[in-house]
Each structure stands twice: as C-alpha cells, then as structure tokens.
Amino acid sequence: QGDSDEGIDYMFKVVMVGDSGVGKSQLLNRFVRNEFQMKSKATIGVEFLTKTVVMDHKVVKAQIWDTAGQERYQAITTAYYRGATGALLAYDITNRQSFDHVEKWLDELRVHADNIIVMLVGNKSDLSSGRAVPMEEAKDFAKQKGLFFVETSALDSNNVESAFLGLLSQIYATVG
Ligand code: GDP
Ligand code: MG
Q1: Which one of 45, 102, 119, 145 has the fewest beta carbons within 10 angstroms of its own beta carbon?
Q2: What pTM value is reported for the model?
Q3: Of all atoms in ligand 1, which is nearest to the CA of residue 20?
Q4: Which residues form ligand 1's pocket by a CB distance below 6 Å?
C-alpha cells in the first residue's frame, strides 16, 4: 500500500482530543498498528497516522492526528483542527474529571471545527472495578449532545475498531 494516494476515493482527517492520560495515543496505536504500550510515551513521534479502510465499496483513507501532549497545557493549535471532519473525544471511565472536561473539549471543537462529527469514547473499560463514570450517564450525555458513544479498551481491544470505524462511517454518510 505504501504512501501512495492512488486508488483512494476519500481522505478524512480525524483528530484525537480529550484530557491527558485518558488513552488517546494508545487507542490510535491499537487501531492502526494493533499494538499497546503500558508505558505510553508522550508522543508517537509523528503528527498523524493513517489507516485505509474500505466502506461501501469505496477506499477511505483516514488521517488521524494525535497530540504530542499539548492538551496538558491547553496549547493545541488551530492547525491541529484545520480541515478535520471528525473527532474522537476520549475520557477515562476511571477518571471522573476527564469526563467532566468533555464539555470543555466540545466547546474547543466547536470553535475550531464547526459541524465536526464526534465519537465520545469512554476508554479503559478493562478497569471496570475502578469505574467512576456510569455508562448510562455517558450514554445520556452523548444523546443530549448529539454525539456517538462507545466504551473501549485500548488494552484488550474492546470496541476500538467500532469506535474508529463507526466515526469514519458517520463521516462518510455525511460528506461521502
Ligand atoms: P493520552 O495522554 O491520552 O495519549 O494517553 P496514553 O495513550 O498515553 O495513555 C495513558 C496511560 O493509560 C498509559 O499508561 C497507557 O498505557 C494507559 N492506557 C491507555 N489506554 C488504556 C486502556 O484501555 N486500559 C488501561 N488499563 N490502560 C490504558
Ligand atoms: Mg498521547
């Protein structure tokens, strides 16, 4: 496949957002490389990773942007969001504060990328004994805000494909 864009029908830019430590980089690592690291580095070393998928007989290339930890300093630049048609907004189901901050991330998305399609992701579902955010509460919140929602685990792979592919198919349904 290489880096060629030959045969690509659609290219969608997706951004990863959410508090530091919720698992954004490992969700991306799991989806694109089927890998996971317990000791996640602050950055994956590149601005984005790409994954090509086929949907509805069309070849869709997703360019998925990850932060290099700038979210810790509220220093994500406008360039990060430019041209994005979708966002994966992650929180950690064991970290109440990361869920409480979802609204702030939605505001940030609205400012930089109006009409962006958002998949809300409650990550670390493998740590259910430490759960601090009830699934029903997040589901209701997502419904109220018009977001798609799923709980995932980058560690055991639960729903990671569903989260990304669900987002991509919603983007496809809108702009494809
Ligand atoms: P980011 O700051 O949002 O990019 O978060 P990272 O992807 O760097 O992950 C932060 C920490 O949480 C790392 O130690 C990861 O190994 C860990 N982590 C990420 N996803 C999961 C998960 O689904 N389950 C568990 N148990 N740990 C996770
Ligand atoms: Mg990260």
Answers
A1: 45
A2: 0.95
A3: 2
A4: 20-26, 37-38, 40, 123-124, 126-127, 153-155
